Amino acid sequence: MKQLFIAVCMLVSTIGFSQSEKYMQTMGATLQQMGSAKTGEEMIAVAQKFERIGDAEKTQWLPYYYAAILKSRMSMMGVGGDKDATADQASALIEKAEAIEKNNSEITCIKSMIATAKMLVDPQARFMQYGMQATKFLEEAKKLDATNPRPYMLQAINLKNTPEQYGGGCKTAKPLAEKGLALYNAAKSISPIHPNWGKETVEEIINACK
Question: Is residue 11 one of the residues assigned to a domain?
Fold first, then answer.
């Protein structure tokens, strides 16, 4: 009986390991596809693949996280259909991620990206609502994880693209980009599929603001 119990435990452990290994492989391959996706059609296909992975892996937040990133980028770029609707799709996806992983700095960063996407549909009319939301989420993300470089990277982008007369430009963006770069250089990745993007962006801002 004891031998049978040990055999069953080993089988369960092996099945769990195989599922985890398959998940990591599938996520890794999909992340590669995400990196090479250029057109709206390619981005839609990769976002849908991430969403299917999330639906299959009930306890994993990363698939929904990456799907939400793609949708928020698509909204900002104006590809894949109506900008507002695409941003709303991103919001629904990040809500699924947050239902699995609460109080997460990375997820909060994407909530900021989505708010920015909503604002960019009509900046003059929406800044007070969505611009403020985007800033609030980045400050929350910093508090949730002081070592996360992405809140600083996103804040630096926002300020670099804001006219100087409204408090933007290199003067305010560069220090945040430099803070982000220091955090990127000190960061240790949890796994190959966990967020590690954005370092090139802060480097570009620093070089542009010399």
Answer: no
**Tens digits of per-residue pLDDT, 189-202?**
899 999 999 999 99
- Where do the H-state alpha helices sit in 83-131? 83-100, 105-121, 123-126
Q: Which residue has the tokens 């999330």?
A: 54
Is the Cα dihedral 91, 93, 99, 103 positive or negative? negative
Q: Is residue 163 part of a domain?
A: no
Q: So what's the pLDDT on residue 15?
A: 33
117 domain-assigned: no
- The domain tally of the chain equals 1
b/e per residue 134-165 (b: at least 16 CB within 10 A): bbebbebbbebbeebbbbbbbbbbbbbeeeee
Under DSSP, the state recorded for 161 is T
Strand, helix or coil at 16?
helix
21: buried, middle or exposed (CB in 10 Å: 19+, 13-18, 0-12)? exposed
Residue 49 covered by a domain: yes
Residue 42: domain span: 22-111
Eight-class DSSP state of 146: T
